[in-house]
Write a structure and sequence with these properties.
Layout: H1 9-16, H2 20-28, H3 35-48, H4 54-61, E1 66-71, H5 78-92, E2 96-101, H6 106-116, E3 122-126, H7 132-139, E4 144-147, E5 156-159, H8 161-174, E6 179-183, H9 190-206, E7 209-213, H10 223-233, E8 237-240, H11 243-255, E9 265-269, E10 283-286, H12 289-304, E11 315-318, E12 321-323
Helix pairs in contact: 1-2, 1-3, 5-12, 8-9, 10-11
Length: about 325
């Protein structure tokens, strides 16, 4: 059985008694057609059941109604909320959402952008590992918004880890800790640098000795070497780059018979799913990652109607808060 023939713009033009170009303007640029002609054309199009071709619309407008989000680690639960928030906002706007995994590699990010450039209207770069200079150059040609990464002059949605890091240090100080170690993530990670600076400044103000170790892989498997390095320092508190690394530290300390929090307190970042299931449950810094993803999509949408590639310098800063659980306690002795 043959499917019914699709109504074309030429069918509408013939039925309405006007040129196909007039139909096109009435549908896509109505200000260029007088009101009576526009109403006549729209009425005929509706009666014939005409629906514009998505491909033709994209070709004429130069838009694809598609955005791509690049994340460094698709297996990290931290990104689940960011992806969910971005996808829901894109769907609400009628935009197709593409997800790309870059394996913690700046080179992979650049390659993915080059491959997708002709297929999408914009890119969401989540925790990008590329340098500021590279991102600036890309922003000259592409519509970009950053998630949990800042580059001066470019739009970004960021969960405030500086204020949250201060909460972590104040919490540890209130428990009597005088020494702490920060287990850093990848050296290309902008967030890792921001967290360390905030922790270091807050520790100095409160008279706590702070040491930075790493970088370590931001995964559970990185926790073994990280925990062993901590024990050499004699510090009584550990702050890990993210919850996955912190959970790996908890496992290794348990293997070595080190009591948490009796001998060492452990803190993570992100409050991922499962942070409250591990033993002991993990004290961690939480933030609205869904909102960060949603806000980043809105920054892209704001820029779609602009004639220039670069969006205005707009930063959406979202609050974080410390979730205190069983992995932190009074300093020993």
């Amino acid at each position: 059985m043959n499917s019914p023939k699709r109504t074309t713009i030429y069918d509408v033009a013939r039925e309405a008694g006007v040129a196909a170009s007039t139909v096109s303007r009435a549908l896509r640029n109505p200000r260029r057609v007088n009101a009576a002609t526009r109403e006549h054309v729209l009425g005929v199009a509706e009666r014939l059941g005409y629906r514009p071709s998505p491909l033709a619309t994209a070709l004429q407008s130069g838009r694809t109604a598609t955005v791509a989000m690049l994340v460094p680690d698709i297996t990290n639960p931290h990104f689940f909320g960011t992806i969910r928030g971005a996808e829901r906002r894109a769907s609400a706007a009628g935009i197709t959402f593409i997800l790309s995994y870059t394996e913690e590699s700046a080179d992979n990010e650049l390659t993915q952008i080059e491959r997708l450039a002709r297929s999408v209207d914009g890119f969401l770069l989540a925790s990008s590992r590329m340098s500021d200079e590279t991102i600036w150059e890309l922003a000259e040609e592409h519509n970009l918004a950053l998630v949990n990464r800042e580059v001066r002059g470019l739009p970004s949605a960021v969960v405030d880890s500086r204020v949250g890091s201060r909460q972590i240090v104040e919490h540890l100080a209130s428990l009597g800790h005088e020494s702490m170690v920060y287990l850093s993530g990848p050296h290309q990670s902008w967030v890792a640098g921001e967290r360390w600076h905030a922790l270091h400044d807050s520790a100095r103000n409160l008279g706590i000795r702070a040491t930075r170790l790493g970088p370590f892989p931001p995964k559970v498997v990185g926790g073994g070497a990280a925990a062993d390095a901590v024990l050499v320092t004699g510090a009584t508190a550990v702050v890990a780059h993210n919850d996955l690394l912190a959970i790996g530290v908890l496992r290794r300390l348990a293997e070595r018979g080190v009591a948490v929090p009796g001998q060492v307190s452990v803190v993570g970042y992100d409050d991922i799913f499962g942070a409250d299931f591990c033993v002991p449950s993990l004290t961690t810094l939480a933030g609205p990652q869904d909102e960060a993803g949603r806000s980043a999509v809105e920054l892209l949408l704001e820029n779609r109607s602009r004639s220039t590639a670069r969006a205005p310098d707009r930063r959406v800063m979202l609050p974080s808060h410390l979730v205190i659980r069983e992995s932190t306690g009074p300093a020993p002795g």
